[in-house]
Amino acid sequence: MLIINPATETVIATLTPDTPETIANQYKMAKTAQTNWAEKSLAQRLAIIEVFSELLDAEKETLALTLSSEMGKPLQEALNEVQGARQRIGFFLQNSQRWLSAESITPTGGTLEHVTYEPLGVIANISAWNYPFLVGVNVYVPALAAGNAVLYKPSEHATLTGLHMAALWQKAGLPEGCFSVVVGDATAGEALLNLPLDGYFFTGSYRTGKHIAEKVAGKLVPLGLELGGKDPLYVADDVLNVKLVAEAVLEGAFYNNGQSCCAVERVYVHHAVYTAFLDALAAAATQVVVGSPLDKTTTNGPLSRKPQLAFLQGQVEDALLKGAQVLWQYQGTLPQNGYFFKPILLTNVNHDMRLMTEESFGPVLGIQLVENDEAAAALMADTPYGLTASVYSSSAARAENILKQMATGTVYWNCCDRVSANLPWSGRGQSGLGSTLGFEGIRSFVQPKAWHMRK
Ligand code: NAD
């Protein structure tokens, strides 16, 4: 299996993928390891997780460089991601005792009733490449804290990062077998689906998520799916500072080269501020620099996967054919090699265009004029996805009126493209099932046992 740097198209590593046999062996080891791990106290498990977090900090430069070289994000963004992952671990360290400890429900009387929270067992964490630290930590840290063992399958586009994570767990003192990296692509993922695991936690596309849900349904074990989105954002006519809003929208759309599950993918703008907003957005876009992820001035590196170049181009061409207009496109020279794409902003768009209905997952953005809040809300809701929705307005009441109509797991007022460890992260519809982060994200990796105790 070749690991290719998307910025240079050079092979940076050659790995041997796991086979169904090696994966079955990993499972056997995990099963034994899990029993011992679950017998340790929660405090002992959290102590090891804390060391893992300290090691992330100690090795952040190498980790960021590896991540940047295998999926192409600018080095500073890779460093930010490692730091963000540490903050999330901090949340789990602070809250696991509270939410995983036994609860006494009926402490007096003839029958004493209490609840304990037991680990699921050995779980699969099949992960994505766009934020491997963040989406990995969301699953494997609370899973390990609760006493589970994890078979972690990083994306084939973030495998070196996954292997480095495993090395850090070992250094941190995690017993062997509690966290195993499964190397490979869809074939290795399929092998995990064929094993009798106790839970499946997936981050990735709707297509793969649906396949996994169908395949493991008969096992009747917990399933978590963090899938894609087509996240809308509305700019109302009462925004106080159009320039600041435009800058926030651009960052929400283009950070990580648009390869974020909660990236802003479509924008609706009230007609009264439409022209001013477009001017401000085009002005903000002049700050975009496409280039090597190692260059400090670069805002957008290459796309992580080569087929995505043609996919995005297809969305843009479809939109242009149907009447869209280019508001702005990157004019600089692209590096000669690598999967580089010129970010683009399009106006005169509508929902007959693929650009406005299917997930782009890249630096392309459509901006549509709307007459009023009702029209904006109807267009925002016109999607099978349900990850996030955002409204920019100076009125909380006005924003809330729109946001409460959205069938999404997350809503934003005057912000966007944001995840907080304090809050549950979940998608509805084609954006997923279950939650990570927050209280729900800790309880996702345990099963309650109800105790009825009579003397
Ligand atoms: P993907 O579905 O192509 O792959 C995800 C993982 O699934 C990879 O590890 C891959 O090897 C594995 N896989 C592929 N086929 C499989 C199969 N048949 N059986 C088992 N495993 C299989 O997705 P991706 O390109 O890695 O990630 C991008 C997608 O992830 C986007 O849609 C994005 O929106 C979504 N995403 C969602 C969140 C969230 O929190 N909701 C976060 C990050 C990414």
Average pLDDT, to the nearest integer? 98
Helix content: 40-55%
Number of domains: 2
Q: What is the count of β-strands? A: 22
Number of helices: 14
Shape: globular
Q: Which structural class should the secondary elements be placed in? A: alpha/beta
Which percent range describes the beta-strand content? 15-25%
What's the oligomerization state? Answer: single chain
The name of the CATH superfamily of the largest domain reads Aldehyde Dehydrogenase, Chain A, domain 1
CATH class of the largest domain: Alpha Beta
Ends apart, CA distance between termini: 61 Å
Major β-sheet profile: 7 strands, mixed
Which parts are unreliable, with pLDDT below 50 for 5 consecutive residues or more?
Answer: none
Strand order of the largest sheet: 12-13-14-11-10-16-17
The CATH topology of the largest domain comes to Aldehyde Dehydrogenase, Chain A, domain 1
Nearest-angstrom radius of gyration?
A: 23 Å
Give the distinct bound molecules. nicotinamide-adenine-dinucleotide
